[in-house]
Amino acid sequence: MILQELALKKGRQVAGHNIQSWGKRRRRSEYILDNGLRSYGSGRVPVNQLRQELAKEHVKDLSNQQKAKKKARAIDKDFFLSVLGSSATKREARSYIQRFTPSEESVLTPKPPSEKARSCGVNLGGFYGPAAVQESPRFIQQPEKLSKVSVGPQLHVALVKIRAPQTLDDETLNGIGRTLAQLARLGLISVVVIDCNNGGLPSPKETRDANWRTLEIEQTNRLIAAIDANGETGARLVDNVIGVSEEPVRPGFRHTSAHVTLRKLLMTPLRRSIIPVIPSIGYTDVSQTAVPVSATDIVLALTKELAGLPTELLPDEDPMAVQERLQALRKEVSLDRLIVLDPLGGVPSTDRDNGYHVFLNMEQEFEPAKQDLLKGLHPHTPGNALQAPAKEGRVSDISLSNPFSKFVDTEFGGPKPLSHTTDHGSPEKPKVDNWYHLQNLQLVRSVLSMLPPSSSALLTTPEEAANSGKDAPFQAARVGTRRQRNPLIHNLLTDKPVFSSSLPVGRLGHQTFMSEVISPAENITPTTFAKHGMSVTTFPNPKFGRWEPPAPGKPQLTLTDSQIDLPRLVHLIEDSFGRKLDVKEYLKRVNGRIAGIIIAGEYEGGAILTWETPPGVKDDGSPESRARMVPYLDKFAVLKRAQGSGGVADLIFKTMVRDCFPQGCVWRSRRNNPVNKWYFERSRGTWKLPDTGWAMFWTTPDLSLDKQLFLDYEGVCRGIEPSWADNKAILD
Model-level pTM greater than 0.85? Predict the structure, then answer.
């Protein structure tokens, strides 16, 4: 009754307020005693209980804070160990800082297009039309494109493709999440594509498991949870960004039906340092039906979008406006890396002792690597039959239902039988794994062809990508690394593979116990680092005949040959050594005894190799004299702007050792030359020449068993005179 009268006199709001006040007072004054009775008032026992509860909550909060700090310290410790374990040099660290330091944010104010003056100061009557018509409001369907777009700091992005995550345990997946979070802390935010295809060739849409979508979402959420559990970097499920065109697709691996429907769905989380994780799900443009999409097609679609590549222009679009829009998109994002995490690892090779390509120069090695994989698919097919035929823009009917079969059919020709009968009558099965390796190889080629030359790709196993959190036990000393490096972290900081491609196989891989008998080929990390790279030209080409000592009456290569650009070669040598070359004296010494010349790219690097006669041997061209001639690396030069990056030196050295002089050669270097460490790692042996300032290096196997050859090497390195114009007394 009291509440009703109060509501009638003063209104419902006042009555409601009083009800809330009475309820609060009752809760403050009502307590439950130990005997279960309800008590009202302000007794001391309930106050003590309240204090105890507050104390317990305070202790719990302190405990949670301590656990959070402990976890943060562990994350920081693992992060710093991963960074320090990369062993980046000063030059590499400086290059990393220059690439990933954000520039000053220049926010450009939108500027409307300036209108042309209606009059030029001359009375032209109604040439421009009535002023009322010119100044009348215009009704347009879409807002005009502004001449400038507001652009913030450029984002550095990596595309990551993970195949068969359902086969990974929680520890490995958690390690991958930790590595991706560390990459984000270092300035490289990832866009992850999940590929649940595993076991056999990719399945056609008609025969795919009915629970395919559930599997994709489950594995995507597993990775998101792993990323969220490792630091401040978060992750988000983005399953509505890929559209699928229902129109026929043009032939070619880069032309896919998948495309990005809305760029903002990608850029919003990236701007907030949140990693988008995309399952292999797409939606058709017309019916908006969820369909399975090849992860390779999704990666290509994301590459086109993030790289700001031009799409099909509409007939009424202004080309200048399109150009400005594309330039703004390219300034917004820098797509630096393609990372492929595959259970099979990097690209295999049958002509490498370690079994894998450590570094792939796509410009020169793509075709040989592709043919090598095709031989594994068709062991008894002749080599010339494996050459890719001319593309006719047509795909066979058998491949229409399978996107990967369409790739193989388009890129490598029509289907071939996958089983062959040996001489014993038993069919030889092809290497099914090579299908996945071919897909990864072509994906790398297609992505890098759409990106700047500075971009790169890394192919490794999920276990290698997750090793940042694993503490390797102490192992006995052997030539190798002290701590297992994470290839993703190392590649980001150094822009190089974990191991140099020109290192001998015995110095690759991890350390082992002295009692263990494991060959280096079995212990090598199956990781491949790929770049668009550059061409390597060799004069003369060793494929047409091995290099031999000069013989009387036979034409010999000279530096003044029309094939050699002598001015650019001289500039390369002088820029690399920082000294002027006495060209006349140098030509006089080397012409007539040149074994060959190796040129990388457009004279970014090069090597000059000669045949030298040991002291005491007559240089008369006789068979005895030619048999004693020593293969000598006379000049090894790389432009200063190309030193320490791009792998130019590795390309030249690898060509020299594997193609030109597989039996070995010799060279010398100043004892205090900072490059000697690089030489020491790649040579078979070294010797400090007594009473000189030289150190001798060689790649000849078992040189210590041939005393005469060793003495010839030493005599040549002692006897060659330098050819510098500034001061010949200084060692070159």
Answer: no
Alpha-carbon distance of 721 to 584, in angstroms, equals 14
At residue 202, φ and ψ (nearest 5 deg) are: -55, 140
Chain CA centroid to CA 619, Å: 51
Looking at 522-665, which runs of residues are DSSP E strands?
Answer: 528-531, 536-539, 594-600, 605-612, 630-638
Rg of the chain over Cα atoms, rounded to whole angstroms, equals 35
How far is it, in rounded angstroms, from Cα 507 to Cα 480? Answer: 6
Residue-wise pLDDT for 278-335, tens only, equals: 999 999 988 889 999 999 999 999 999 998 886 666 666 677 777 777 777 778 889 9
Task: Say which DSSP state 390 is in.
Answer: P
Residue 178 token pair: 């930790």
- Sheet with 694-698: strands ordered across: 536-539, 594-600, 605-612, 630-638, 666-670, 694-698, 685-688
Q: Which among 528, 524, 518 is positioned nearest to 487, based on CA atoms?
A: 528
Those residues whose C-beta lies under 8 Å from the C-beta of residue 278, and which sit 6 or more positions away, are 191, 192, 193, 194, 220, 238, 239, 241, 242, 298, 302
Q: Residue 695 forms beta bridges with which residues?
A: 669, 688
Instruction: Note whether 291 and 205 are within 8 A (CB).
Output: yes
CA angle in degrees (0–180, nearest 5) for 692-694-699: 140
Query: 274-278 and 188-195: which strand pairing?
Result: parallel
Distance between CA atoms of 653 and 678, rounded to whole angstroms? 11
Between CA 176 and CA 182, with CA 181 as vertex, the angle to 5 degrees is 95
What digits encode the pLDDT tens for the residues 39-90?
554 445 577 777 778 777 877 777 777 776 666 666 665 655 555 555 566 6
State the alpha helices, DSSP H only, in 160-294.
170-185, 212-228, 264-271
CA distances in angstroms from 256 to 276, 445, 521, 607, 692, listed in the order given: 21, 15, 38, 43, 64
**Does a cis peptide bond (omega within 30 degrees of 0) precede residue 540?**
yes
**What is the H or E stretch that residue 291 is in?**
strand 290-292
Q: Are 218 and 324 in contact (CB under 8 A)?
A: no
Amino acid at 199: G
